Fold each of these.
Amino acid sequence: MYKAVIKPLFFLLSPEKAHHFTITLLKFTLGIPLIGYIFRWVFRVRDMRLEKTVFGLTFPNPVGLAAGFDKDGQHFRAMSSLGFGFLELGTVTPRPQGGNPQPRLFRLPADEALINRMGFNNEGVEALVARLKNGKRPEGVVIGGNIGKNKDTPNDQAEEDYVFCFERLHAYVDYFVVNVSSPNTPNLRDLQEKEPLQKLLGRLQSLNQTFEHPKPILLKIAPDLTDGQLDDIIDIVDITGIAGLIATNTTISRSGLQTSDETVEAIGNGGLSGQPLTDRATEVIKYLHHKSENRWPIIGVGGIASPKDALEKLEAGAQLIQIYSGLVYEGPSLVKKLNPSILAGKR
């Protein structure tokens, strides 16, 4: 029904309008008690064999919602009804910011891909804290907080932005993700270089130990890193003692696309996600898993739109996976398709 009826209608709208309309409609629909119960009954796959304990947290299943879908924590209760084992909110910054000018989200249907240059548009960390503090958390669902810096914060002051978000959110999320890999904030990826990244993560980890209950800290990395840079990332994780990695964010590469060069050039800059990222994200996971000798967990994300994609990520070394673009092209039943296939080990 989604592919035959709903998706064609949504694709008549601009991608950003379709996104807001979809989640608003979902939130309204699931607010009806009986409908919410039906959704949870249909989409949730309850099986103890799907449970995984990773970096000290118990996940009811290994399929999560990637950051970017619910930046401000407005829809996490509705999204939990679709069967996710965990939800990652953000990326959130200390101060509200509008992000980049529209249009800033584009579909590539021939590639089942998206290009975005959203630019960390969000209402600021205080708005997210208020929603998490005052809202009812979904039972059993792990919630992560993805943190970044404001666009106008110079890189030499970026640590303060991450520290501020970390301190404000610490009581309200189960784990943290440090995002220095988005291609849509000027010079942000410079923070992936070894010296500034080790300094940032080391400071957050030291701060983390001052809390009564430290939270796992993960780093989200770009798929465009060289093997040498990935080796540096492995060293940094070992030195700082953070909990693990999320591989990968969107790519700036445009190689191998079915969409015409003219269309891609007209879209311009932004991070590419979806099916074209599938193989590269898997390669990065496999490399990290092998070179690190599985010393810490990896969350795999990038181009997961089928059971085959999910199993490839897990076989490459990921312990958990996340989806986003796949929801746009496959619909909300994707989570329900993935979990039984993971359980059975069938593609």
Note: The first strand starts at residue 52 and ends at 54.
Amino acid sequence: MHGGRVDCSRREALAALTGLTGLALVAGCGGGGNAGGGSTITAATYLPDTYVDLFEPMNLFMETATKRSGGQVRFDWYPAETLLSAEQLMLGLAQDNADLIFTTSSYVSSSYPLLSAMELPFATNSVQHLQDVMDAGSELYEMVNDQLASYGLRLLGTLPSAFQAIWTTDRPVRTPEDLRGLRIRVAGHIEALTVQAFGAAPTSMSSAEVFEALERGIIDGLMSYPGTIVGRSLQEVLRYGTLAPFGHYALAIFVRADWWEQLSEPIRSSLLQASDAYHKAGTAHLLKVHREQYFPEIEKGGIEIITLGESEMRPFRAAVEPVHDEWRTSVGDPEQAEKALRLVQGLIG
């Protein structure tokens, strides 16, 4: 390591070990630093390539940025915690160990509560609406970036996921009472509040630890979007999946505000165009993978899918009203919180 960055030989070793040569867009040694005149951007995520719904959009972002910049923008690409773990990504960005990170919004939104407006349970039942409401330049997108600016950060783009479901090993979930006493893995603050509102005990751990925790009975289930099930082969140890808009998160792209400001306008433009492709074409890819690959694999793995109807969702909706109230308090500005929530709900067009 040199100055917090991976040196050239280390990069090559990591690329060889993780098979990145066909995926990364690498411009040789150097990396990071001032990309204003055209150089390498160090990009990282904790996700492995088993998340095919997310990996292709991340590659699309990098390929589009390189193409739109005429080759000025290139990437040193570190997935699967080869540079930073899930818990280290935001700190690593702040410490200049990475220039750009892809991370699940739920891991960081407790620090930036406006970002978690789209994570609230039963706020909307439309992924398309969430895509529209977080489009670059939209009102909520600008509100989030105004909040992030005070932390020296910028949200470059989001990849809205499918809604989170509740997955369990031994007990089907059809009512909030079915969750009472269960230990449910969560990946963020809003998720923890949600499962707690249903009477379950939220448990935090990285997605890489979940398979063993389920297998050993340390947890009874998890709240997650479908990609985590297939990406971590959890269909082998789960028996039930209950589908409803229990929550939502996005795979978000973050950069440092000062790094962004020192980029030349053509390079910023290429990254924004790449973000647009990531947000739109990437989301379409994700949903297609879920429909054509993930759910068939989940059902083939023996998981019984339970889809809740409107009347069955009513007690769940009632149970999570305190979650919305606590989130409003966390924003610290009642008017701003109400506006963000109404945007997510589709009550402001």
Note: The first helix runs from residue 8 to 18.
Amino acid sequence: MNKLAEVIHSRSNPDLPGELLPPDAEIDRYLELFGAQLLGVVPFNQRYRLRNEAAFHLERLRDDLIAEGHDRREAVRRAIVAYGPAEQLAEQYIKSWFEKSAGGVLAKRLGKGNAIAFVAFALAELICVGLFYGRIFVPVESVFRYTVDPTVFPASTLNAVPIPDSSLFFAVLATVVLVAPILAGAWVGAKVPIHPMRAVYHGLLPCILYSFVSGVLVLPSRELLLFALVQLVYWLPVSLAVAHFARLHVRALRIGKELSE
């Protein structure tokens, strides 16, 4: 990340202060900062096109202000202020560029980032819930039998299946529950270049609600209720942090690759 910080710093801080630069050089500095925000996220040909679009709009704003009677330096300053901060503009362009590549009904309805996160966490949810149910219902010759006598469920719902236990099955279950948010968060961070933490929140929240409702409605309730709690206090913060750092890491790798070419 030091390399990323150096690139953005160097592009946004030329040798001369703004008041000593030629008027149009202020636009060039703005465009350099704008391009630096896209570096490592948007491919070069797309960055070039977006930079040219921003330059066209800025120059048109400048020319309109000059026609209104402002001197060139003031016109450039006002045009930049009217166009908005370079970081904000870059964020809008990245979001637009990313969402344009969305394919499928789910991505178009939820947004591409939210859809990626939902698929990642829904898959993790499916695996974990399947393992939870596997501790209760075991298939034998195409017929399901109960590992616990169903007649004791109403009287001992909270003690239907011991938690934890020393079985290999429970060890596998615990490992999956611990590792799943790390893998899902890393996947989202690597695939979603804009607001991956927001996508994680939107993708994971339905899974938490599903676990909670299932825990209330499906026996034995303790397992899925505890799972919902684990998702809330462990999955959510861990996946948010992993997604954030995964995005930064992937971007730094892409920047390093571009600078080395």
Note: The chain has two domains: 2-100, 105-260.
